[in-house]
Design goal:
InterPro entries: Acyl_CoA_acyltransferase, FAM169
Largest sheet: 7 strands, mixed
Protein name: Family with sequence similarity 169 member B
Structural class: alpha+beta
Number of strands: 14
Oligomer: single chain
Strand content: 15-25%
Number of helices: 8
Distance between the termini: 79 Å
Number of domains: 2
Shape: elongated
Organism: Xenopus tropicalis (Western clawed frog)
Amino acid sequence: MENRIHHFTMEQGHHSLADQINATESHILLEAAAKYYFQISQKHGHTREYFSSPEGEVIKVDETSVRYIPLYRDDSGKMLVLVDSKTGESVVAVYLNGTWRSVDDILRSSDPSKEGLIQVQTFGERIALFVLNCLVCGFSEANGSGHEAYFLPHASRELAKIFWCHGEAVGFYTYKNKGNLCNPGTGQCYQLPVLDTVFVRKNWRRQGVGAKMLQDYSQAFPEESVLGISSPISPAMYTVCHKFLTCNPKDQDRFWEVEAPGYWSQRVNIWLKIQLGEAPAVTRPNLELQDLPALLLFFL
């Protein structure tokens, strides 16, 4: 039997992989992945299919090197991904349109209008969000925590924006609108907009991408006097908040760390927490009365 090798190929011209995905019915892609996964599982290692990665690594496609993981948190659709069978810690490809596609290929777009933060709307953009969240953030950049360490997928209608830089998806943030349900089981709704998750790929960190996301989030709700960031906030995110709020004093009163649904008793002002030295991994500045948010001075 002849070996079948799926070679990595870079999409050329205007029709990128994202364009192809958007032109295909989502259920067709998901059904094809399910069928292929079933075929692989039935062969019990007796396969002659291989994937040649962009780095030149040849990976055998069998049940030890594939993972069948949820695309959405609230839907039955799943994606078939190929991992390094030796370590299981790095996703190298995703099965789309009848072939294996490298992660980097999926995160590229030839659409010149995709620059900066773009709202996730199309199925192709949902796939890019899934790859960033579950595969890059959860697998490839998860500090070697094992092949089960992917992040939980987002909901199928998650509000999200992807940051595109020169045709490449380099990060994303997700958020909740004021009035969105926190949990269908409780009936509680968010009392304010809440920035939920933020991720920037390693090669683009310390280049101001996180601050641009906060700026975009702030500008998206000009009528809101209070904006939330979901608790707990990581030390790295506190550092980004510190830099952003230092450069944007008008937002110091607006940004609050919140627990859902965000009642006043569930909020802590981020700038005040930084000033008091209570924020992790942020150097405590000299605390002066005039540095405190005006809203909080009212309570002192």
